[in-house]
Design a protein that fits this description.
The complex is a heterodimer of chains A (376) and B (311).
Chain A lengths: L1 H24 L1 H22 L6 E7 L4 H13 L2 E6 L3 H10 L4 E5 L3 H6 L5 E7 L3 H20 L13 E7 L10 H28 L1 H7 L4 H31 L7 H25 L3 H18 L11 H8 L2 H15 L3 H25 L6
Parallel strand pairs in A: 1-2, 1-3, 4-5
Antiparallel strand pairs in A: 3-4
Helix pairs in contact in A: 1-9, 2-7, 2-9, 3-6, 7-9, 7-10, 7-11, 7-13, 9-10, 10-11, 10-13, 10-14, 13-14
Chain B lengths: L7 E12 L2 E12 L3 E5 L6 H8 L7 E6 L2 E2 L4 H7 E4 L11 H11 L5 H12 L14 H13 L5 E5 L7 H16 L3 E6 L2 H4 L4 E6 L2 E6 L1 H7 L3 E6 L3 H10 L5 E5 L2 E6 L2 H12 L5 E5 L3 H16 L1
Parallel strand pairs in B: 3-8, 3-9, 6-7, 7-8
Antiparallel strand pairs in B: 1-2, 1-4, 4-5, 9-10, 11-13, 11-14, 12-13
Helix pairs in contact in B: 3-4, 3-5, 4-5
The chains are: A alpha/beta (376), B alpha/beta (311).
Chain lengths: 376, 311
């Protein structure tokens, strides 16, 4: 038994050393490991700013009144809105929004002040370009308070109770506006998914295409040994990437890590291994490198859309949630958000950690059984 | 299971393999003695590579049985792999690994006691000293082939399977390669080598000729030539092109092949060939001498006959 285990480790180690050397020689892959996380983080860094400033805004003032002036002044003071244009009429107002020159349009209708003084509930129209929900959602949230406090200073207005006036918000072009996200935790998982899948998805097909598989298969090495030899180097690569992203998140964007760093590392290792196993199983099914890349992207897309990275998981229909549960990224995003932002412990995470372990094992079993030991 | 007599390295019976309904190897049986260099000859696509791959467990035969070094080729591929060195037709070491790294990889995989030392020793043996750190992909054809041979002999196998090892290698490198193979056989290694060079065939202890997936003849070079029962004349003189065309049309002439300034005319039936040659003997400008069929004559004859059988 020990002799068997020794042989297993010896052959796995031979494979592992070989993979490390090849990885070191492959400058493009090597650059990818470092560049992808940094590039993504910097690019996504813009979106991380969920409290945007100076959003271009158009106003359509249908009546000149004190109340209108107070509201506009208050809007400017928030710094959320920059009034760039006073529209002459409704047509211009619409075209400004449609062309994207402004993200907001605020319309003060005729008779707004009079209706307000009478204690009626007049409507203030806020038109928001929700094609950019990240930018508009926070500003919309702030608007209500701004207007109310602006009017509170105007003594002529009866007490600003709820119901004094009504906001009519039109979230144009994208009615399902998305709430602000925790980008960095999600990004750790997304970047790892992408790079880990690609690395191992190419590993077996590359040997097939370069003709080295024939030699390898003629040598006394088992599929499990080949698999571990090919996965282990990238576990280390994945951990380097994860620490790069989390480190940059902490330094550049001040993302906190409330929970245990050790737990985060352990569960990240599990997640990385799960993705590597999935990529590797693609590699055993695909006929060539191109197919492997295509399969990777097919898998990557639902990971982005259904994992809760882009859209809130709870808002998805049941069937989409079922698919989401089968994706490692879904569980990892929950884990990372919980550890980094809520300080969660393993007790609270055993469901997601268990799901990751199961997904990893399923992928490994598929890979080992699908691995073609002969050239038949 | 009884292990076969130790002096037999390979013994297979009725091996058959087809891909997508096309039979590539048909009912092939062969026996290779230990310590011998066994030449495996045949045209491209004749099933040589497929047979070799079945011997080392890379392909599963559709039918037939056999042993390699006493282990069943169907069920004991793992044991065979540990004792066999297989050199593929196409260079299949890692091009992005250096000479040393490739050798160390093989040594580690086979569990050689001191992989680094074994690799260093092999580098010296191959005459690659000073090139250890060169990437395998940047070596010339001849060096690549030496490295590949070195990689398969490093784990000290009992049997070498070499699939067209000298294709595309210059004559000097080929000669050195064959000297190395003879040296290895001298140490007791069994070597099965496929080739389509006739001069290489003549350096084998035993040869087998395979065409269209069938083994056509087996034996030492003189045995194979004698077994073909081919009567051959060498015709030299003027206007050989016209004479060749005339002869090819004659009954009893199975093969006409130009060799430099002469023609090799062969036939399986002595009487019919004599009859066909008679008109030529009246031509004073021609010299006609009986000669021995060459290995190439025999193989080309075998091939044309087997094609007749398959069409």
């Amino acid at each position: 038994m020990t002799a068997g285990a020794l042989g297993f480790w010896r052959r796995t180690r031979a494979m592992l050393i070989k993979e490390f050397i090849q990885l070191r020689r492959d400058r493009v892959s090597f650059a990818m490991i470092v560049m992808i996380p940094i590039m993504q983080l910097v690019l996504f860094g813009y979106a991380i700013n969920t409290t945007p400033r100076d959003l271009p805004t158009a106003v359509l003032v249908q009546e000149t009144s004190d109340v209108g002036r107070s509201i506009l002044a208050a809007l400017k003071n928030t710094k959320y809105f920059a009034v760039v244009k006073h529209a002459r009429d409704a047509d211009e107002f619409d075209s400004l929004l449609k062309s994207g020159r402004v993200l907001f349009g605020i319309e003060i209708p005729v008779g707004f002040e009079r209706a307000l003084r009478r204690g009626e509930t007049p409507a203030l129209l806020i038109a928001a370009d929700a094609t950019d929900p990240m930018a508009t959602a926070a500003a919309l949230g702030a608007l209500n308070g701004v207007v109310r406090s602006a009017l509170a200073h105007d003594r002529a207005i009866p007490d600003s109770d709820p119901g004094t006036f009504e906001f009519r918000t039109h979230a144009r072009y994208n009615p399902a506006a998305v709430s602000a996200l925790n980008i960095v935790p999600g990004l750790v998982g997304t970047i790892l998914t992408m790079t880990m899948l690609i690395f191992t998805a190419l590993s077996v097909t590359r040997e097939l295409e370069r003709g080295t598989m024939e030699s390898l298969l003629a040598m006394p090495i088992t599929p499990i040994e080949i698999m571990f030899g090919k996965i282990i180097p990238y576990v280390i690569v994945g951990l380097v990437q994860a620490s790069l992203i989390i480190g940059a998140g902490i330094v550049l964007f001040g993302v906190p890590v409330l929970g245990s760093m050790a737990l985060l590392t352990a569960l990240s290792t599990l997640f990385i291994t799960a993705n590597l196993s999935i990529g590797y199983s693609f590699s055993t099914v695909a006929q060539n490198q191109l197919q492997a890349v295509q399969m990777t992207f097919m898998f990557f897309l639902p990971n982005i859309l259904l994992s809760g990275f882009m859209f809130p998981f709870a808002g998805m229909p049941g069937w989409a949630q079922v698919i989401g549960e089968a994706l490692p990224l879904t569980h990892y995003i929950r884990i990372v958000r919980a550890i980094m932002l809520k300080g969660a412990m393993l007790d609270e995470l055993h469901y997601d950690a268990g799901a990751l372990a199961i997904l990893m094992l399923v992928a490994m079993v598929i890979a080992v059984t699908r691995f073609r030991r002969t050239l038949d | 299971m009884n292990a076969p007599a130790p002096e037999i390295a390979i013994e297979v019976e009725g091996l058959t393999k087809s891909f997508n309904g096309r039979v590539v190897v048909r009912d092939l049986s062969m026996r290779v003695k230990r310590g011998e260099i066994y030449g495996f000859l045949g045209p491209n696509g004749s099933g040589k590579t497929t047979t070799i791959r079945m011997l080392c467990g890379l392909l599963t035969p559709d039918a037939g049985r056999g042993t390699c070094l006493g282990f069943d080729i169907r069920t004991e591929a793992d044991k065979i792999k540990r004792r066999v060195g297989y050199m593929t037709q196409r260079f299949s070491l890692y091009q992005d690994l250096s000479v040393r790294e490739n050798l160390e990889f093989v040594a580690r995989l086979y569990g050689v006691a001191d992989p680094v030392g074994a690799a260093r020793a092999m580098v010296e043996r191959l005459g690659l000293k000073g090139r250890e750190e060169q990437l395998a992909g940047s070596l010339s054809g001849g060096w690549k082939q030496r490295l590949a041979l070195g990689a398969c002999t490093l784990p000290e196998p009992q049997l070498l399977l070499l699939d067209e090892p000298t294709a595309g290698v210059d004559p000097k490198a080929r000669r050195e390669f064959w000297n190395e193979i003879h040296a290895l056989a001298g140490q007791g290694l069994t070597v099965l080598v496929s080739t389509h060079y006739m001069d290489e065939a003549e350096r084998c202890h035993e040869i087998a000729y395979i065409a269209y997936g069938q083994l056509l003849t087996v034996g030492s070079v003189p045995e194979v030539i004698a077994g073909a029962h081919l009567v051959t004349y060498t015709v030299s003189g003027d206007d050989l092109g016209r004479i060749a065309t005339e002869l090819e049309a004659c009954e009893g002439v199975d093969m006409v092949a130009p060799f430099g300034a002469s023609l090799h005319v062969s036939g399986r039936d002595r009487d019919k060939l004599e009859a066909a040659m008679t008109p030529l003997r009246e031509n004073r400008s021609l010299r006609i001498e009986p000669s021995e069929a060459s290995l190439e004559d025999v193989f080309i004859d075998l091939m044309s006959r087997s094609r007749d059988n398959f069409q």
